[in-house]
Amino acid sequence: MDSSAASNLFLVNLPIAELPLSESFKLRSKLMGFFTLQDILSADQVDMHTREDYSEHWYFEFVGFLNRKGLLYLLS
């Protein structure tokens, strides 16, 4: 993990509502019961697509955010 990733690690525990993500992402996250990125990371990634409010656009925004912040490794 590089230093920028380490310095961004705190982001996973902030409320999603406070993060620079789309309003659609924030609403879908709330509807699925996710309030932090850590909630999403802790969820069963295989079954996530079966949630009623899941969308690929939502997931790609999540992955893109992690990637931009150097935190994509958290998905593995």
Explain the layout of strands and helices.
Blueprint: H1 3-8, H2 23-31, H3 37-42, H4 56-68
Key terms:
mainly alpha; 0% strand; 45% helix; 76 residues; single chain
Describe this entry's structure for a reader.
- The chain has helices at residues 3-8, 23-31, 37-42, 56-68.
- By secondary structure, it is an all-alpha fold.
- The longest helix is centred in the C-terminal third of the chain and has 13 residues, at 56-68.
- The protein is globular and about 35 Å long.
Helix content class:
40-55%
Strand fraction: under 5%
What profile does the largest beta sheet have? none
Instruction: List low-confidence stretches.
Output: none
How many alpha or pi helices?
4
Q: Find the structural class using helix and strand composition.
A: mainly alpha
Secondary-structure element string:
HHHH
What is the global morphology?
Answer: globular
- Using only CA atoms, what is the Rg? 12 Å
Instruction: State the end-to-end distance.
Output: 13 Å
Mean pLDDT: 94
The total count of strands amounts to 0
Explain briefly what this protein structure is.
With 76 residues, the chain is an all-alpha fold. Helices cover 45% and strands 0% of the residues.
